[in-house]
Amino acid sequence: MSPAQTSVWIILGYLGLLIALGIYTSRKFKGTASDYFLASRGIGWFLLVMSLFGTTMTAFALIGSTGESFKAGVGVYGMMASSSGIVHSAVFFLVGIKLWAFGARHGYVTQIQFFRDRFESDKLGIILFPVLVGLVIPYLLIGVMGAGVTIENVTGGAFPSLFAGGGVGPTAAKAGAIPYWLGSGGICLVVLVYVFLGGVRGAAWANAFQTLVFIVLGIVTFFVISSELGGMKHATDQVVEMNPHSLRRTVRADDPLTRYNESKKFFDAKLVEWHKQPKSKKGPIPVAPQKPHSMTQLHFLTYLLIPLSVGMFPHLFQHWLTAKSAKSFKPAVILHPLLIMLVWVPCVMLGIWATSAMFGDPPKPVIPWGQGNPNAVLGQMVAVLTKGGGTGILPGLLTAGVLAAIMSSLDSQFLCIGSIFANDIVAHYLGHDRVSDRQKVVYGRVFVILIVVVTYLLSLQRPGSVFTLAVWCFSGFSGLFPLVFASIYWKRVTKAGAYACVIVMAAVWCWLFAQSGYGAKREFLFLGMMPVATILAASTLALIVVSLMTSPPGEKTLAKFFKS
Amino acid sequence: MKKLVYGLIILLAILHQDFWLWDSQYLVFDIVPIGLAYHAGISLAAALLWIAAIKYCWPDDVELLEEEIMHESDAAGGAR
């Protein structure tokens, strides 16, 4: 058996283990919709810590952070990780606990139920439904694409008689590699199976298991790769020598910019070759490498607003409601920044090292010059550097770790989309007493399958980088943060203010997304700031101004949510 | 105490904007760039501050509600 085939069997074994876990948790299923969607509100602190962390850490955390630090350097950690340690926990503390309390008191299952009740508006759900589902789809895409790319990169050479490989540019695959379409499709299927079997309890158990797996294997990857690179100091020394700008947030005039210059030479040669090709044989025109540039203060500062998105993630809302008690939140609030650090610091170091890592004799770059796909960096490092032992065991295990991070988010997202559809659309409009628990679960599952098929088809188009997609998706959710915050802490917020907030957020988001060439301009800034700053400012302003211009909510509603 | 804890959290958010390290290439233990080590420190400080927040700023109304729900649950025969 070749090393690549061993890796494939390990990945398959891991996926089989997850299905077995789904079967085990399905035995605890009580058959009610509340149990399927909320685990009967009985999740203890450990599963809550793991599921909240596992859900917020996606392909974005492992693949995206490695890829982005490879591209933009060390500043990525401050922009997304340490900021999340402050903001995520703040949101769990200030928003999550309160929403758990409202959910426990009034029996909410979804976010939309809470907002409908809080704003005394049935139609608010009609507006929120497409907005939330529309924003979850790019989030799903992040996971599905990340899974396909990772599997394809690690399994190169496994089954050359079955898969020919090929392609050009960033989407090129090695001969014998499990193709992107099969890898991403397979992962969707496995997640669907264990979510269908165990509901949110199955997802929480799988999250806990997978979070432990990806933390442990992420750390193992870090040490194995740093050892293969000749030690941490040697790996860093190579960066100092070749690409020192990756170690800071500025680019100096005398920086050697080795990767950029070599990639530029590679690109120029490719371009000459491309021009020589006859028209009928021409593939897509090669993409020029981006010249490194300094990170601006404003860009960094406005990134701090992105993690506010967790306050409006529907799947996180659902996890909050599963908590057995408010006390279950305490360890989650404290441990979250530490767990983020544990996962992100190694990934960012790996991304920085990847810029300058060399191997073999004569030395070749681990990530080839001209590599244009940051999503592939982690997978390539694992594939190139851990095959030294020749068994393929380590690459297989490490890939399982990356997939664990991806699947621990996908499962909650699948489940929450089903829950929203079954509860907020079907049961809400047909009447909760006319739709049985069993029917709710079935409707939820059918809708999830539909969304997964749409997401999968979209993922085959490979729309943009994992990081860019995630940032746009998070920006939309952050733009809705004023809605949830005001609903908890501001008595004067009104139904009209809530509508204005959602509509303005959607309008400004769409407008800015169009300005960015629908995500094509990967480093798009508006007025030098992250688009989220404008979206959030506009939605907050709309919420406040319109609320103050309209009649305050009824006394009954205020008494329900503001018992002093 | 509550105000002090919230004040420290805001201070931490301000310290997050480490403009004084923007151009520094200093390596901690010759390995970790200072821009990364500093922000790892921010993550540690955040965890410590959240311990303080839970101790001094825990919402009392949620505790009361929890007790209320427990009583109701007991009254209903333990079913939730």
Give the secondary structure arrangement, pairings included:
The complex is a heterodimer of chains A (564) and B (80).
Chain A: H1 3-26, H2 33-38, H3 45-56, H4 59-72, H5 75-106, H6 111-118, H7 123-154, H8 180-228, H9 232-242, H10 258-276, H11 297-303, H12 314-322, H13 329-356, E1 358-359, E2 364-365, H14 377-385, H15 393-430, H16 437-459, H17 466-479, H18 481-489, H19 495-515, H20 531-549, H21 555-561
Antiparallel strand pairs in A: 1-2
Helix pairs in contact in A: 1-8, 1-15, 3-8, 3-12, 3-13, 3-15, 4-13, 4-15, 5-12, 5-13, 6-7, 7-8, 7-14, 7-15, 7-16, 7-17, 7-19, 8-13, 8-15, 8-16, 9-13, 12-15, 15-16, 17-19, 17-20, 19-20
Chain B: H1 2-15, E1 27-28, E2 32-33, H2 34-56, H3 60-75
Helix pairs in contact in B: 1-2
Plain-language structure description:
Chain A has 564 residues and is mostly helical. Chain A has helices at residues 3-26, 33-38, 45-56, 59-72, 75-106, 111-118, 123-154, 180-228, 232-242, 258-276, 297-303, 314-322, 329-356, 377-385, 393-430, 437-459, 466-479, 481-489, 495-515, 531-549, 555-561; strands spanning 358-359, 364-365. In chain A, helix 4 crosses helix 15 (393-430) and helix 5 crosses helix 12 (314-322). Chain B is mainly alpha-helical. Chain B has one domain. Helix content of chain B is 66%, strand content 5%. Chain B has a two-stranded antiparallel ribbon with strand order 1-2. In chain B, strand 1 (27-28) and strand 2 (32-33) form a beta hairpin. Chain B is elongated. The model of chain B has no long low-confidence stretch (mean pLDDT 88). The chains are: A mainly alpha (564), B mainly alpha (80). The interface between A and B is large, with 54 and 39 residues.
